[in-house]
Ferritin-like domain-containing protein
Amino acid sequence: MLSLAERAVQVLTTADGREKTALGRAHAAEWFAARAAGTPIPVGQALPPLRPARPEKPDLLDPRDVPRRRPGTPAGRLALLHAVAHIELNAVDLHWDIIARFADQPMPLGFYDDWVKAADEEAKHFNLVSDCLEALGSHYGALPAHAGMWRAAEDTAGDLLGRLAVVPMVLEARGLDVTPGMIGVFRASGDAGAVAALETIYAEEVGHVAYGSKWFNWLCGRAGSDPKEVFHDLVRHYFHGALKPPFNEEKRAEAGLPPDFYWPLADGIPPSQKII
Ligand SMILES: [Fe+2]
Ligand SMILES: [Fe+2]
């Protein structure tokens, strides 16, 4: 039987988005069926590629070269959905990568449960947004996309705490901040399909940030270190630039991310400390 780490590498080395997500979803279903039966699939070990396989299209451009379009136009909304599909495909790989990349470190089975579930949800998100693109007569790959998405993974390839700090607790938490605005854009344009897809993404991403926060705190607890201090050090080390308010304080709280984790890393002053 293939180990979980070997399955993760299979997903990472599959290029096509629909094939990658179908394979990942099948592995997730088998993982949870085996867990429920009390006969877990061994975690094992396997070497993940430094970068995941990607389809020939979209062309990956430096972020400065990706054309900006205003969301008030149909072309702008299509570009926004395309960018979200690209983020979701990257997220599928990020979650399988954390499983394979750090499989040599002993972690409770619950760690793998959480990331397999998150990877499965990202696959659903990619498919939902790809369906929206196809309903508009387009598809994932039709527009250029951001080339820098994998940088956080490469930068933290040797540091599990760094990976948790930067990926779920900074990047995915940022998703919680910006998704309500995107939902508003598609609600205003009357695209019910895109609204439904983004609402599913918004609800499920809270869980991914929560998994990050949970395992970050758990690892700090095991090492006897102060999670807040470690978080600040790691984000300053691996993340390029300040965090951008406004923050979705409500959803961040739901995900177990306290304000004193992110405000000290932000551009600007927290509202409670502003001098009026
Ligand atoms: Fe997602
Ligand atoms: Fe996510």
Notes: The radius of gyration is 19 Å. Residues 62-271 form a domain with the Ferritin fold (CATH 1.20.1260.10).
